[in-house]
Design a protein that fits this description.
Chain B: Belongs to the TRAP transporter small permease family. Chain B: Part of the tripartite ATP-independent periplasmic (TRAP) transport system. Chain B: It is a multi-pass membrane protein. Chain B: Keywords: Cell inner membrane, Cell membrane, Membrane, Transmembrane, Transmembrane helix, Transport. The complex is a heterotrimer of chains A (about 300), B (about 180) and C (about 425). By secondary structure, chain A is α/β, with parallel strands linked by helices. Chain A is about 45% helix and about 20% strand. Chain A is built from 13 helices and nine strands. Chain B has about 180 residues and is mostly helical. In chain B, helix 1 packs antiparallel against helix 2, helix 1 runs antiparallel to helix 5 and helix 3 packs antiparallel against helix 5. Chain B is elongated. The two termini of chain B are about 20 Å apart. Chain C is mostly helical. In chain C, helix 1 runs antiparallel to helix 2, helix 16 packs across helix 18 and helix 19 runs antiparallel to helix 21. Classes of the chains: A alpha/beta (about 300), B mainly alpha (about 180), C mainly alpha (about 425). Chains in contact: A-B, A-C, B-C. The interface between A and C is medium-sized, with 27 and 26 residues. The complex binds sodium ion (2 copies). The site of one sodium ion has 8 residues of chain C, from loops.
Chain lengths: ~300, ~180, ~425
Amino acid sequence: EKELRIGLITPPPHVWTQVANRMADSLPDESGDALSLAVFPAGQLGSEQEMFQQLGTGLLDAALMTGAISSLRAPSLAGWFTPYLFEDVSAAAAAAETPAAQEMLDELQRAGVQGLGYTFAGMRHILMREGLIETPDDLVNEKIRIVPFPAMQTWWQAVGAVPTPVNLGDVYSGLQSGLLDGIDIDLDALVGLNFQEVAGGLTLTNHMAFPAVLVVSQATWSGMSEEERAAFTAAAEEALAWGTEQQVAAESANIASLDGQIEIGRVENGNEVFGTANAAFQEAYGSNDIISRFQEQAREAAQ
Amino acid sequence: MTAATRTTGTAEQIMLRLSDRLVAVERVVSRVMVVGFVGLITVNVGMRYLAGRPIVFAEELAAIMLVWLAFVAISISLHDRAQIGVTLLVDKLPGFARRAMEVAVNLIIAAILAVLLWKSVVWVNSPMVAFEQVITTGWKKWPFFLVVPLFCITAFIHVVAHILRPTGEHHEVTL
Amino acid sequence: MTGLSFLVLLGTGMPIAFVLIATTFVFLYMADRLPVLDAVPQIAFGSVETFDLLAIPLFVMLGEIMNEGGLTRRIFRAARAWLTRVRHDLPLVNLIANLALAAIMGSATAQIAVMSRTVVPEMEKAGYGRGYSTAITAAAGLLGPIIPPSMILIIFGVIAQVSIADMFRAGIVPGLILFALMLGLTLWQASRNQTHGAATRPVETSRIKASLPGLATMLIPFVIVGGISFGVFTPTESAAVAIVVALILGGPVFRDLTWKSLPAILDRTVQNSAIVLFLIMAAKVFGWVLTFNQIPQAVAAFIASLTQDPTIFMILVMLSLVAVGMFLDGIAALIIMVPILLPVATATYGIDPVQFGIMVSMTLVLGLLTPPVGAGLYIAAAISEVPITRLSKLVAPYVLASVLVIFIVILFPWVVRPF
Ligand code: NA
Ligand code: NA
């Protein structure tokens, strides 16, 4: 029996960690007890950057990485952060089936890893200490905590906000005290960390998706037999799809649980309202061939 | 004989002199690092409240400066023998045995540093590292990683100097 | 075998950080997993690449500036000016000045060193026994790492991924309880000692004149505690801003600091930071290799089989850490033990990581005052020339007071989250 290790940065309760646990549960059955999987959540083995290096040398066998950090290895993955490309999580999940999404996974091979598929966190929204957002003017010079990676930075800088790096653990007190005016966040994290207690207005902007990529070390992959690869892929696909389903359900459950606790608004036509920022993103990333194919195919898939 | 009067050129004295010169350079680098990140953080606070625009890369860069400071500072502390250990038992040994123990310990440390040097050279040159970048600025990160092999070399020199150092000549630094 | 090599190497006097790295090598060799060594340089680099850890050199530097710039002395003088008419004013002044200092400095050793030099001679002049005076001073140093800011709490926050601001807030109430207990103990001991303790002569200068510099110095804890509580700064930023304030006070305002004193301040900062940062680095490498081989998971399963009760678990942890702290430096022990114990505490027993962190930190800090190895004892004994065995006995009541506070933290978790 071969024991494989999978690492991720999300804490134990997070859907992504549950996806990894689900793989660990089914892999022995799928592989006829040839393979087992040990899960290392919460960055026990290091940051995502560090885990990428460990995958490269074959120390670590697999990881569920954010698309954000993965896009530093395979630039086409930045296409996932095209603003207003997806209506909701199910639309993003549909786009994961496109040929261009597969091309992105193939591009990861140059970083020494095999991309096997995607699962998703919730859509990104904007939570403010005070008030709702109607236009980007409401965000000018506001201190917003974002996930600091190039694609998201490009968009937020074009909005005119001041992207402010703060650890997720310090966001609660940062909002409470005014160190932060707002955050770019998904609803799972918002509800999980009780940010509604220290913020006044949640604007459902739906501006970006937030995928995770399941990667396997090339060294591990080439060391597996055909049957082992098939078993691993089967366990992975089932768990990733399950995770996406959980996330789709969580999105509406989260909104329902926030109802009455906090003022909730929507930006209905964000495509136009945030037009300038969206154009800035397109200017920076639209020239990448895979990204432009991905955008086209994702729009087709949505129709 | 003290560091200042050491002028002749036997191999062992060259090593001791090298260690002393090296640590002088390292002290300057370490001071610059500390002043550097105190300045960077303070300016960042000022920018946030006075200009309303924090420096996006300030935290990431300051953290990298801390790594540099850490490696340089550790090397200095090895030269100064300032790292803490449990000397409860060793202090009870007679002089010659204590010296023998000290040499043995330093030989182990030198061996560890040699292995780390080898591993860190492999690491800095590995294809994976070529992808690493400072996220907020987009700079290549491998030049920053060079501090690890550099540290292994300087620390190795300081430790070997301690092995060669004549009995009785200590760098007791009372800071 | 791995555990044995750890103990043997520890006994040779090898720096603890290298003991950890060497033990890692032995472990990987025994487990036939030497290729894992490839990851060591990367883990070492990543281990200190954390913005929050910057607070460590910064708070070390702040302490150095406080002492070099005469700011510590001014706090002592200001407290003294107001208490000259009170019976047993000097023991009181000692504790109050230590409390004020604790709100600025992050470690006990720096605080014990400077207070032993400043206060013990004054108390002796006023007729208090040298042993008694030194014991109070060494014990009051324990307030340093409990009242924020605190190096050990920063390190716990980084390892446990808990907000450092939360850790700082959590230290306040237990620190104040400890202060109150120490105050009671000190006064009780002073009153039993009939030959001393008449009010000392008033200092020549007026109260206002003596207390103004002290009040100005109290700007610094205001910047730190206020800045963090109201969220104006992160803990790291508050340290940098406090350094700037301390430089201005010590330099242009009080004129005790000159450009010439800066290199020495920087060198001491670098040296003290080197010890802590190397320990963090080595413990991270050690911990990573253990985690990779699922050792903490096995330890967790074993501990969980001993008891189901979180309170009993915490008391067991406390007792074993008291034993560890007798021999090992507190910060070293913290960064070795927490990655193993914390997951058990939170996942198996559902203990609040903040409460666990305060309990562990307070327990390990006690090691400073417990023989045979205790930096606090050594420093105070060396400066005041009191034998270590005698000093250990004299501080024992204060150590017990501290144990009492740790029990309060275990039994009444609200003290760590009062607001
Ligand atoms: Na303190
Ligand atoms: Na001790």
